[in-house]
Design goal:
508 residues, alpha+beta, 3 domains, two-stranded antiparallel ribbon, 57% helix, 12% strand, disordered N terminus
Length: 508
């Protein structure tokens, strides 16, 4: 899929202003009244007649709308939390499992439950949002759609901050945290399309678990469905040190693959373009629902659908414009993606890096005598381009710098598209033919074990990565200076027209 094209235009600026307004709301100090922000915008609006930039009124309005949308979401969520008056008291919650059970990095399980009723002692609590419930390992057997009654204590709500755990929970609609002590199965929702999709995913995940040895089985699932699933803390750390955590997120490659294979094959079967576009869109939406709609996948899906229907309608759209539109649409629905979902930010920054730096790095690497093979050159250019924009965000959040990341991505990432294709095709076949599961997955298991050996070896090399124990504000300053220098370099290394071209393999 071509994701490219041309220079930025003024039609993108209002969308960018909306996102900036959202970002400011997440950073706005609690002790500062909101009126200060809108007072500043009013002053800017009054003085806008002396400003020279285009569409200044529309940009100011979008700044206000972005801040207002985010502030409304924050106030609403805090109001829900304030209803919980039973902190540090035994509480009973009854609700339905709405997300796949996950393994906690510190051990045990975590469940996302849609609460239908809550009670503290004999007092009913008016809370009907979602709760994150921690439990022992055996709670991982919970199924989506099951209704349980949990007993435990509410945990202290985490503090705020950019990309904090608090905002991460908000992005998933969670308004309470419980340390579960006991549970009791109450019932199960009648089957519907969504539950059938989730059940199908669970069956396929079980096929992978039984057919592949660990830790290969734990890594195979995230390649298809995304998320760390039941990946151990040791392997999560190995992926972080080597700069390979992104492989556990459903990427643009998965979405591009579905669009290209389905849309092109439907055209080969002489299907009308309108019908082919509609069928492809339905499959993409069902796939997103199947994997739980993670932010990175929704971004890729939105971008793919916008491009698909843009071409269907005969519209020429620019990559930057599409990127901003898809981000704005997601943030209108859920503003907490911007501050609470690190994958959301990394996903968009990676695509931006691919659009702006892939060809530039390719031209630089061509001049190096040691990199003569196009395969190595292309993969190295893509890796460096993506990391040009993403590493400051990782540095902001974790204070971690991976020196081995370019080499690790070069040695590992090339195999992931082939693994993804194979696992997507083999999983349904193995499900229908249980007796042949071991033989069907043997090639994938061998390749996964080789990649895991490489990751483990690189993660344990001296100076593979290190932590910088700087205050958060200093990390932000370093990141801002870095991005300013990057923009200056972009202006210096200007390419020709149509230089921002990203192939399916290069879409993150």
């Amino acid at each position: 899929m071509l994701v490219g094209g041309g220079q930025s235009n003024w039609s993108s600026y209002p969308w960018l202003a909306f996102i900036i307004g959202l970002a400011i709301a997440g950073l706005w100090p609690e002790q500062w009244p909101v009126i200060y922000y809108y007072g500043g915008l009013a002053g800017l609006a009054c003085g806008s007649s002396v400003l020279s930039f285009k569409r200044r009124w529309l940009i100011i309005l979008c700044l206000a709308l972005g801040f207002g949308r985010a502030h409304l979401a924050l106030v609403t969520k805090e109001a829900i939390i304030s209803q919980l008056i039973c902190s540090n008291k035994v509480m009973t919650m009854r609700g339905e499992i709405v997300g796949q059970p996950q393994t906690r990095s510190s051990g045990g399980s975590q469940l996302i439950v849609k609460i239908k009723s809550a009670q503290c002692g004999h007092e009913a609590i008016n809370f009907h949002g979602r709760a994150m419930i921690y439990g022992p390992d055996n709670w991982l057997d919970s199924k989506v759609g099951e209704e349980w009654q949990f007993t435990g204590k509410l945990k202290t709500w985490p503090a705020g901050g950019v990309f904090s755990y608090r905002y991460s929970l908000f992005s998933r609609g969670v308004g309470a945290i419980m340390a579960g002590e006991k549970r009791q199965l109450v019932g199960r929702r009648p089957p519907n399309l969504w539950l059938k999709l989730v059940s199908g995913q669970q069956h396929l995940a079980e096929v992978l678990t039984t057919s592949l040895p660990e830790p290969a089985a734990s890594l195979a699932g995230p390649l298809i469905w995304g998320g760390v699933g039941r990946l151990s803390a040791e392997w999560r750390n190995n992926l972080a040190i080597t700069g390979l955590s992104h492989i556990t997120a459903v990427s643009g490659f998965n979405i591009s693959l579905l669009i290209i294979l389905l849309f092109n094959n439907l055209l080969l079967l002489h299907c009308p373009r309108l019908l082919a576009s509609t069928a492809t869109s339905i499959v993409i939406i069902l796939y997103l629902a199947l994997i739980g709609c993670p932010a990175s996948a929704v971004r890729a899906g939105l971008l793919g659908l916008l491009m698909l229907w843009g071409r269907q309608l005969g519209r020429v759209v620019q990559a930057y414009h599409l990127l901003l539109i898809s981000a704005s649409l997601m943030l209108i629905v859920n503003p907490f993606y911007l501050w609470g979902d690190l994958g959301f930010g990394l996903s968009y920054l990676a695509v931006l890096g691919l659009m702006t730096w892939t060809n530039r790095w390719d031209n630089i690497i061509k001049r190096l005598p040691l990199v003569r093979y196009p395969f190595i050159r292309d993969n190295l250019a893509v890796t460096l381009a993506a990391q040009m924009w993403t590493w400051p965000l990782i540095f902001w959040q974790f204070g971690q710098i991976s020196l081995i990341a370019p080499l690790a991505n070069l040695l590992v990432v090339w195999a992931l598209p082939w693994l993804t294709i194979f696992l997507l095709l083999a999983s349904p076949i193995a499900w229908l033919w249980p007796a042949g599961q071991v033989f069907i997955f043997a090639p994938a298991g061998w390749l996964l074990n080789v990649l895991l050996m490489i990751i483990k070896y690189l993660a344990h090399l001296p100076l593979a990565g290190f932590m910088v124990d700087w205050p958060y504000c200093w990390r932000i300053i370093v990141g801002i200076v870095y991005y300013l220098l990057t923009i200056i370099l972009l202006r210096k290394f200007t390419l020709t027209n149509n230089d921002y071209v990203v192939t399916p393999k290069k879409v993150v």
